[in-house]
Amino acid sequence: MPEPPRIDVEISASDPFAAGIQVGRQLRAKIRCALDTLNTLEAFQMQRPWWLPQSLFQVVAGRKAHATLHPAASRIYPHLVDRMRGMAEGAAVSLQSLYLFHAMETMQNPVEGDAVELTDREPFAGDQTGWADRTGDAGRSRDRRNGKATQPVPPLAGCSAVGIGSQNSSSGQSMIAHNFDMLPASADYLVLRRCGQGGRLRSLQFSYAPLAGTIDGINEAGLAVTYNFVGVTDADNSTPPLSFAIDETLSRAETVDQAVAMFGELPRGSGGLLMIADASGAAASLQMSGGKHHLIRSDSWGVPLCHTNDFTSREMADVEIPRSAVFGSRCPDALQGVSVYRSSVKRRQTLRKRLATRKHWDADALSRLMATHHPSLDGREETCENGSFSSIGDADTVCMHGDYWSTIASVQLFPAQRRLRIAYGPPCRSEATDWIVTGA
């Protein structure tokens, strides 16, 4: 029988180093197992120089990650660096190894080489809902860079997110839903943290055991944030990734406007798509690169928001990965030759079609949406048979069942109630559990 869902770690010490020791001790097994998993992670091992023994690669990569990230991290987020130091001591691992996991968050940023290829091919044929269809520009000039497209090893996650503002909510309250589409092995290292350090807003955070930052979270003021990875061309990989900024924002901001202002000011070393909502009913999609951002508000559009893993605004077009890029020879076999944007575009198209079928959404309808496998042309929802949806999911469906990425968890956040709901595993066949931010 599987272990029932629970809070994995409580962060209560006011001193960041002491709090880190709490985290490291409580998550020691998960952190150490995550490090062991790197030795079998295909995308990571494919970056190993041929002359470097596998037994040394993780050590060398950790030292490089520490040398790259530590100077800026200690200057911008000294409390998170102290937390990492405590985590390393509590888990009995090196600080360099924890920096390696944070450096991997920026792996989706471009590098020269053959991780992704293609310059002469047209942008993915199904891409009719991004910025190009509103401008008439297919972006061909941006798809030629010294004869080869630039893009990294594949990111560690896909992910789909939906934001419902008060005008599209049956209850008049905002909601966010977020599917974690990641490598199946990473499911063992997902953790739910309750943070209650003195002088900072209390929060529930859903993240990975080795990370000091967070991926999704909601705080006692009712601010909720989710994070989708996206590759960008203007990121500085020596700057801490967005997960640090999310942790900082959840500890201080109370509204969408405050969060957007903080995200705009905090340096970041990775691109991202953030879905943000607050207790007033506001919801927004914040598209971010290393040096710029663009905000889309639900009340401006009058419809529910959604995003996957590509930018949809013309304002961000000059910093995105070329639309014609495909995963190349330095990527796992399951991805080689596949369009970088294929899954993202198809999932986003499905979400937009489904979101257009109704004016108002409640939590149950939102749960069914995130369990979607294929869009119904007539707008009808799929039927659930024997606890699972009747159609079969794949790498391009909202509830993802791919050869490389799959949906390993689905999160819903309810700002007005300070409530976070998690379904571990594919949402098409998983039951959800609710938690409330303590003291809210």
Structure, explained:
The chain is of the alpha+beta class and 440 residues long. It has one domain: Penicillin V Acylase, Chain A, CATH 3.60.60.10. The chain contains twelve helices and 18 strands. Strands 1-5-6-7-8-9-10-11 form an eight-stranded mixed sheet. Strand 6 and strand 7 form a beta hairpin. The longest helix has 23 residues. It is globular.
Strand and helix layout:
Layout: E1 9-11, H1 16-26, H2 28-38, H3 42-45, H4 54-76, H5 78-91, H6 95-104, E2 116-117, H7 132-135, E3 160-164, E4 175-182, E5 190-195, E6 203-208, E7 216-219, E8 224-230, H8 242-252, H9 256-265, E9 271-277, E10 283-288, E11 293-297, H10 298-301, E12 305-307, E13 326-327, H11 342-355, H12 363-370, E14 384-385, E15 388-389, E16 406-414, E17 419-424, E18 432-436
Helix pairs in contact: 1-5, 4-5, 4-6, 5-6
| SS summary, helix count | 12
CATH level 1 class label: Alpha Beta
Multimeric state: single chain
End-to-end separation: 33 Å
Instruction: Encode the helix/strand succession as letters.
Output: EHHHHHHEHEEEEEEHHEEEHEEHHEEEEE
Indicate the low-confidence ranges by residue numbers.
110-125, 128-152, 376-381, 383-390
Strand % is 15-25%
Helix content: 25-40%
Structure class: alpha+beta
Side by side, the strands of the main sheet go 1-5-6-7-8-9-10-11
How many separate domains make up the residues? 1
Number of strands: 18
Question: C-alpha Rg, in Å?
Answer: 20 Å
| CATH topology annotation | Penicillin V Acylase, Chain A
The best one-word shape is: globular
Largest sheet: 8 strands, mixed
CATH architectural label: 4-Layer Sandwich
CATH superfamily descriptor: Penicillin V Acylase, Chain A
Mean pLDDT: 85
